[in-house]
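Researcher: I need the complex structure. Ligand is 2'-deoxy-thymidine-beta-L-rhamnose. Inputs:
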Amino acid sequence: MKKRWDIFCKVVDNFGDIGVCWRLAKQLAHEHGLQVRLFVDDLSIAQKIIPALQPSQKIQSTDGVNIAHWQADLHFEHVADVVIEAFACGLPESYLAHMSADTIWVNLEYLSAEKWVVDFHGRYSNVDNLTRHFYFPGFAENTGGLLRECDIIAQRDTFLQSQTHENDLKISLFCYENAPLQALFHAAASGNKKVTIVAPLTDSISKIAPFFNIKSLKVGDVLSKNQLTLQVLPFLSQTDYDKLLWSCDINFVRGEDSWVRAIWAGKPFIWQPYVQSENTHMTKLNAFLEVFYSENESACEAHLAWSTGQWSNDIWQRYLDNLSTIQTITHMKSNQLALQTDLATKLVDFCINA
Ligand code: TRH
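Model: Output:
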């Protein structure tokens, strides 16, 4: 049995890299009984995702996972049975030097719904006497799957049973700086229904301050204009962020991890992919829309408008007019995907057979 696992994570930008690695590390430890070490190069960003983390400590144990600050001079006493290199972050030379042909080395790739993923998942290349396997998360059965804790759907349903339904439309907002925020806020303020937008404070959201005739936003602000109210929250723990997604009628999400969490929330959502060169992100978006929202034109239209900056009152109104259908589709697709084997379980099997 390959019990000892190391995960290497570089925080390239934003919170997605550590967000995914932390979820995976916990799941491997809790659900698969593995000894997991997580090496992270930026502990202050990691602390946003792992609130119990002490950035000043080089090595610590939290929630059943050993976390180490990955610095250039880090000394490795042993190599694990399985090494996960997250998002092609590169392994330290001193670690590679200790690896043998028996070490299972897996590069965890970014999630995409594109068709080619099926063909590339599980390929490998040889590096000296080592084998580097390429593991692609995905939406189809014959990919690496999606991260999902075994009890998350049950937890969500129990949480929702304890909630009372509000009449106003509640929306969570997490987006990139190029999102057409102004246009969304204008549409929401001038619609025929009361709307509450709830947003953890990030740089992108701060840009909307002038809409409320103020210079900047701060945690705790509650700002109103016509039909719209904005509530500014602190950056939440992953657990509380999940609950926020569960409790909203529509979730605006981005990147990789919040996207998958929106799927498990089962509520209508609008995903904004991380912007890449040559419009690669739009290819990713279109591939996702094809597998998830192809039955609903207004959901596709709103997604494309959100990622291209073409938002309008009409697009928003059409989305709202179709909301109950979009709700039905989202719930159904979410349930279908939840029937598939989750990423951590597939990854463990993959490594047993590698
Ligand atoms: O932060 P992101 O934009 O990360 C991105 C993506 O991973 C992208 O694919 C990658 O290329 C780029 O980083 C470098 O979005 P993402 O993936 O949704 O990660 C956000 C994490 O933050 C996720 O784990 C959810 C979590 N989160 C909270 O815990 N609390 C919060 O309040 C919010 C808004 C998010």
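Model: Summary of the prediction. The radius of gyration is 21 Å.
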